[in-house]
């Protein structure tokens, strides 16, 4: 009985350990996207900054700076309701930021009074209330006034998707991606929803990740190109490089055998045949060796030069902001984050 109880406890601890590891934070990844988000914020690319800070928060939900950066992006977009929401998340993680704590009530008041509200935000509220016909009219009004509003086009696609009008949904989604090709979440959705209409690029618009393709090409020529999505180039240059390496090995082996045969020929014997084979294999070996060195070097350089943006392993938030719920996990005040991203 006691042994069974101990075994059950052990299994429970193992299960909890595995469950915890599946949600492990990645502070290094969060910091990389946080830095990139701040660069986008300084460049006034606020929509891309939202994506970057969202990815940072997904990578490490306890990073107060990531939530504050997300609040900053919405603040500069004059979306005070969402700015207050994410500032509040940051403040709960870092209550020492008293200036931020003092700003949150002001933003709540501004949002309640309608300050900073946009027609797109009003249409979003209609969508969230499941008043889809009214939301379609509201989104159409927005895009008629501003055809370059990517968020409104995506919202329009969401409405048509719910109403099962797939052709119109695809048309709206495609227009949104044309205006904001860095919306990776929508790209990924379209790849499943309408593969024939999906955007070609599925890579997050982040810092260049050249280390991953470099070490792959160093181990197996062409692997780095394949990792970068250049499959044709991977098979071509990878195959040529591996083939040249094989030629180096084969000609060296045949040349060595011919050399041994040449040295073993007795006086008065036929030296010409083994010597000719040895010489020709040596010449071919030198050419193959030089060719292999050039091709191998090329695959390394090309893998770095063709490197894509970092793939975080975490899906970016959609342009429509996620609902954020904060819950206390234990008596010590540890704060946990739960996310619910709005469906397409």
In which range does the helix fraction lie?
Answer: 55-70%
Mean pLDDT: 77
Task: Please compute the radius of gyration using only Cα atoms.
Answer: 30 Å
What are the low-pLDDT stretches, counting only 5+ consecutive residues below 50?
A: 1-23, 199-205, 311-344
Counting helices, strands and paired strands, the structural category is mainly alpha
Distance between the termini: 52 Å
Percent of sequence in beta strands = under 5%
| Multimeric status of the protein | single chain
User: What is the string of SSEs from the N terminus onward?
Assistant: HHHHHHHHHHHHHHHEE
Report on the biggest sheet: 2 strands, antiparallel
- Outline: elongated
Strand order of the largest sheet: 1-2
Count of DSSP helices?
A: 15
* Strand element count: 2
């Amino acid at each position: 009985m006691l042994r069974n109880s101990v075994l059950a406890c052990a299994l429970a601890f193992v299960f909890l350990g595995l469950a915890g590891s599946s949600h492990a934070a990645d502070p290094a990844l969060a910091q990389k996207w946080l830095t990139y988000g701040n660069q986008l914020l300084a460049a006034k690319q606020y929509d891309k900054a939202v994506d970057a800070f969202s990815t940072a928060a997904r990578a490490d939900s306890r990073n107060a700076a990531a939530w504050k950066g997300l609040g900053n992006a919405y603040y500069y977009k004059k979306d005070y309701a969402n700015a207050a929401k994410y500032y509040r998340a940051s403040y709960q993680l870092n209550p020492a930021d008293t200036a931020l704590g003092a700003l949150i009530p002001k933003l709540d008041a501004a949002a309640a009074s309608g300050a900073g509200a946009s027609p797109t935000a009003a249409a979003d509220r209609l969508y969230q209330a499941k008043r889809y016909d009214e939301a379609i009219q509201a989104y159409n009004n927005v895009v008629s006034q501003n055809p370059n509003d990517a968020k409104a086009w995506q919202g329009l696609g969401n409405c048509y998707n719910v109403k099962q009008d797939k052709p119109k949904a695809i048309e709206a989604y495609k227009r949104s991606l044309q205006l904001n090709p860095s919306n990776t979440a929508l790209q990924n959705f379209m790849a499943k929803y309408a593969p024939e209409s999906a955007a070609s690029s599925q890579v997050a618009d982040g810092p260049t990740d050249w280390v991953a393709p470099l070490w792959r090409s160093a181990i197996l020529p062409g692997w780095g190109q394949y990792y970068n999505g250049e499959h044709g180039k991977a098979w071509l240059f990878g195959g040529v490089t591996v083939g040249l390496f094989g030629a180096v090995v084969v000609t060296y082996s045949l040349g060595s055998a011919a050399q041994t045969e040449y040295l073993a020929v007795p006086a008065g014997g036929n030296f010409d045949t083994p010597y000719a084979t040895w010489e020709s294999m040596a010449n071919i070996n030198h050419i193959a060796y030089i060719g292999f060195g050039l091709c191998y070097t090329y695959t390394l350089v090309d893998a770095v030069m063709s490197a894509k943006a970092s793939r975080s392993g975490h899906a970016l938030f959609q342009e429509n902001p996620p609902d954020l719920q904060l819950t206390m996990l234990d008596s010590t005040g540890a704060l946990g984050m739960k996310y619910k991203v709005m469906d397409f």
